[in-house]
Amino acid sequence: MEKRRQIAFAGVSVAMVLLTAACGSSKDSSSGQSSNVQPAGGAQNVGSSAGAGSSTASSGAAGGYQAGGDTGAAAGSGDTGNSGPAKEVAVKKDAKLGEIVTDAKGWTLYRFDEDTPKPAKSNCNDACATKWPPVPANDAAAGTGVDKSKLGSVTRSDGTKQLTLEGWPVYRYAGDTKAGDTKGHGVGGTWNALAPDGKPAGKKAAGTDESLQLMVNNNAKLGKIIVDGKGMTVYRFNKDSAWPMKTGCLGACLDTWKPVKAVNTSKVAGLDASKVTSFTRPDGTKQAAFDCWLLYTFTGDTKPGDTNGQGKAGQWFAVTDKGKKAGLAAAQ
């Protein structure tokens, strides 16, 4: 009986190896993920009253909440002081992450990849908001290292005002037990300590070797879609093949559809890095793939957020964070 189990296990292992080989990909090194870096906007400046100005309401669902690795006391108990108004928001130096934003008591402040900065919107509600308490906008002020004009507010689904930095809703982490803790950084691959520019702490500015290369954007029409490091929409082609991995875009096709260069999986955010692979094209160049589908950008897109290639010739589609075709063609 034991021998039969061993044979069955070996069979499954071989099948997995063959499945990976059929994809025809070579994976880059994988590590933790960061966040969706987007331009700020949509938040209202924080004044003497948290209710000043209009703002965008958040959705009622706890959208995209990643619980992986969450521990710690429930939020709002007041036992640890990790709750309430931020008071003076300031920049502190962390030995591992560099500059991070904290509240007046030194508690680390965080951002969530599933939120959006333009327009400002919180997608962390209900159980998510218990583990990641939203920071109230009232009484918040700019302290050392923080630009006052970068602070704002957004109206949550319960009608309360949440503090924003560069448009990103601001949170604390219930798992932090003392001021200076950064236990929430990297949780679920979607939570990160805040840098003073609104980006994830520990990441250099876009355009440097540490910038993100693939990430997820919340598109108003198509939902969560993959974009490159510059925020340009990424597409897949029906005439390509995933199993085995082959390209159907050659010759003149490449004048319009540009292969996304192979990426380092430590520089992706909001998607499963284990599904990011590479493919060697006929000319020897390496092309990025997600879930074995080759990735392209469209020359008809002129700015970040454009989706002009969606549905082109009934063959080209933006790629969802799950690797599927976005929009009406998502059912595959």
TrEMBL record:
Residues 25-60, 72-84 have a biased composition (Low complexity). It comes from the Bacteria. Residues 24-91 are annotated as: Disordered. The keyword Translocase does not apply. InterPro entries: Lipoprotein_repeat, SCO0930-like. Keywords: Signal. Residues 1-21 form the signal peptide. This is Lipoprotein.
